[in-house]
Fold this sequence. Notes:
The protein is mainly α. The chain is built from 21 helices and two strands. The model has no long low-confidence stretch (mean pLDDT 80).
Amino acid sequence: MSVLFTIILMAVIGGFIGAMTNYIAIRMLFRPYNAIYLFKKRLPFTPGLIPKRRDELAEHIGKVVVSHLLTEDAIRARLLDSTLQKEVTETISHMFHEKMTLETTPNELLETIGYTNAEVRSIDWLRSKLEKELNHFFDKNQSKRVSDLIPSTLEAELREKLPHVTERITTKMAGFIASEDGKNQIKQMLQNFFADHGKMGSMARMFINTDTFSEKIQQEGLKLLSQDDTKNLLNGLLTTEWQNFEAKELQELLPGESQPQLTKQLTAEILQAIPYEKLFNQPVQVMLRNYETVITEKIIPFTVERLLDFVAKHSSEMVERLNLANLVETQIATFSLPEIEKLVIEISGRELKMITYLGGVLGGFIGIVQGVLAIWI
Length: 377
């Protein structure tokens, strides 16, 4: 009985020593957190392994992450993966459809980012900007001719349009003269002419039939307007007037004292042409509803593809600028030692317990061997 008791006792003692040795070794990875001094001498194995080499460990982990995990090739391959593009596209499309079920005005959207009274502030900003730019334009170009301010393409197009303007003027004039109103107007002019010339006019009216004479004038006027010489003359007059207009300096057309009034008038006309009420108070969803299919089927997939492609092409530059190694090192350095210990234990607690139990088993086995050897030797 004493032999068996001795072997069992040796096994229990060996198992206890083995388990406690492994347990203490595991704990010494983290504990103590700080160095312990005795008579101003630092005790060995203080602080623990991880606290002692924490900075070095963080630096190496950062380098490993960048060198072997988050490499440029890995990031680029992931970004260009069709599965990722499909997932991102589906996610954004789903979010877009959710937002389309709401009724959110631009005013409300801008308020969410802190931009209140968007309509009033936008009008004031645009008015100030327009007045500033118009005043700057007028001040800068006072001594320039109109021809210098008009783009060459526009000037050439306007010159080409002059014959059409002439044709339109003669057509309108002919249409008016040929109308009943035109005939009455000619007749009224004749009567006014006779009335203005006193007795001579009264005598002439006795020998002239006003209706017949006005019809004659009407016919001659139409004949005159239909002649090429008349059109050429009118076209020449318009061309000359346009050339005279182009040759004038801006300050001739717009004296300094009239500039502020013109600036305010132009600004008011531009602002009046902008539908602010509709732009800021109509739900965004209403404005986008007609384009919903195009947005989900074309714009969103195209945007996601271009964006991921852009990020992939510049991944090396982004990784370099992000300095991921330093980022990982800094993040690890911010962890407290109890947090690191808790994190490691949460991840590998089961394995650490098995190491402790294994130490107990090995210690117990060694104790049995020692007990047997102690009895037989």
